[in-house]
TrEMBL record:
Residues 147-212 form the HTH luxR-type domain. Residues 6-122 form the Response regulatory domain. The modification 4-aspartylphosphate is found at D57. Coiled coil: none annotated. One of its GO terms (biological process) is phosphorelay signal transduction system. PROSITE patterns: HTH_LUXR_1 (PS00622), HTH_LUXR_2 (PS50043), RESPONSE_REGULATORY (PS50110). Pfam families: GerE (PF00196), Response_reg (PF00072). GO terms for molecular function: DNA binding. This is DNA-binding response regulator. InterPro entries: CheY-like_superfamily, EvgA-like, NreC/VraR/RcsB-like_REC, Sig_transdc_resp-reg_C-effctor, Sig_transdc_resp-reg_receiver, Tscrpt_reg_LuxR_C.
Length: 217
């Protein structure tokens, strides 16, 4: 019988996952799955089409800056992602929302906030706890939102290629990693440059690191 899991808790701390799981099951019902890193989260999503919501820790293994969030949103645009993090920096929260997070739940927040967050997010609203609301339409965030909009136009394959370009891999190396022809990678890179409105792969990689991994993590 196919599992009807409704959510995934993606966090590398087993005790925190256990506490979250109890609270989420009370608020959401259905089976709640767990993942300890980004790769496991993506593979679990691939196996469970019923998942509606991912609770994502920003700092778990495989998740550099906002790359985990954008990987999930790019590959599974129909799945809502609620960030659960010890980070409470307003700039990080704003960037997470700009790049597609449906909400931001600090790990310091009371567990009863989970029910409020789940209800709001599944209703299609962005959720922040009381006292954390702020204006998103200001200053430097404009360039980030513009980049986020362009990034959303990439296919999942193009997004993978862009991450590898940002890591400094050549077309030949990317083709070997993805087990495809180098000409296919060249086509992906051309499409990426066009969609991001940049002139070369170096500029694409710099922008990706600037906005997705601003702290070099």
């Amino acid at each position: 019988m196919t599992s009807q899991a409704r959510a995934i808790i993606a966090d590398d701390h087993p005790l925190f996952r256990s506490a979250m799981k109890q609270a989420i099951q009370a608020a959401l019902g259905g089976e709640i799955l767990e993942a300890a890193n980004l790769e496991e989260t993506l593979s679990t999503l691939a196996e469970h089409a019923s998942v509606e919501l991912v609770f994502l820790d920003l700092n778990m293994p495989g998740n550099q800056g906002l790359t985990g969030l954008t990987s999930l949103r790019n590959a599974y645009p129909g799945v809502q992602v609620l960030i659960v993090s010890a980070e409470e920096d307003p700039d990080i929260i704003r960037r997470a929302l700009d790049f597609g997070a449906s909400g931001y739940l600090p790990k310091s927040a009371p567990l009863e906030c989970i029910a409020q967050a789940v209800e709001a997010v599944l209703d299609g609203e962005q959720w922040l706890p009381d006292g954390m609301q702020f204006e998103q339409g200001s200053g430097p965030a404009t360039a980030e939102r513009d980049f986020a909009d362009k990034l959303s136009q990439l296919t999942p394959h193009q997004f993978k290629v862009l991450k590898m370009v940002a890591d400094g891999l050549l077309n030949k190396q990317i083709a070997w990693e993805l087990q495809v022809q180098e000409t296919t990678i060249k086509q992906h890179v051309s499409a990426i440059l066009r969609k991001l409105e940049v002139i070369n792969r170096t500029q694409a990689g710099v922008l990706f690191k600037q906005f997705m991994q601003p702290d070099g993590r």
